[in-house]
Amino acid sequence: MVAAAPTAAFQLPNLFVTPAVRLSLVVFGLVVLAGAVAVQVVRIRRSDAARAVAEENATGAELEQSTAVRYAFGQIATRLVRFTELPRSERHGELSVVADRVAVALAFYLLPKVPDVRANVYQLSTDLRALEPIGHGGAGDTAGVFRAGTPYGDRNLEWVLVGGSPRIVGDRSADVDVDQDVPGFEPRYSSYVSVVIRSDQYSFGMLTVDSPVPDAFTELDAKNIAMMASFMAVAFSLTYSFPERDRNPRKGP
Q: How far apart are CA 142 and CA 182, in angstroms?
């Protein structure tokens, strides 16, 4: 409408015969044109300013996120260095501390934009019949134990023991074993990422991160979760000796 105003204004003199009136209307048309140009300039400047603010905010958010990522990975790396300095007999007791740090780093530093995110670290039991939580971070309570003889327990135990690929599920209602839910089972999560904690073809447990919001995780999120699972695998490897691991049937194919 603003763009059409100058054209309409300059058509007005054609409707009048008196030169004085025509001159006045021409002047009026010039004023309208100047006003229209001024409006367009203001709009462009506002658009440029808004774009600059958006770019500045995006740059600030990116810088903040990269700082958080460096801090999270740095904290875990430092914790692992200290972990190596402990006598092997003390590492078993410290393992849950490392697991908590990994879960907290994921929930609060690496995945801060995921709604109500929760991270849990699980360890295979000595009899290989359960996945027991040893680390927790984020919203909600610590998840329960996955036990053999239950649909979810059997599925996850088999997946962990063979070192299955990471699972990225955007909507659990489309997951393969939802129809096997126990009656009344209402989990807090809708989407999740699970990664086997594994080193040297040997499985130790799994790391899971979930959210009540569908499709909450990106491909980059999954990579960060896998990286943290690798850190946990290092901690497990430092805790259990190689002969002890080689004798244990949990070693995958």
A: 19
Residue 250: name the closest of 166, 124, 134 by CA: 124
Rounded-to-integer distance, Cα 44 and Cα 84, Å: 60
Contact of 121 with 133, CB cutoff 8 Å: yes
When pLDDT is averaged across residues 53-82 and rounded to a whole number, the result is: 70
pLDDT digits (tens, 9 = 90+) for 169-213: 998 877 655 666 566 666 778 899 999 999 878 899 999 999 999
Taking the complete model, does pTM exceed 0.85, yes or no? no
| Residue indicated by tokens 């006598």 | 87
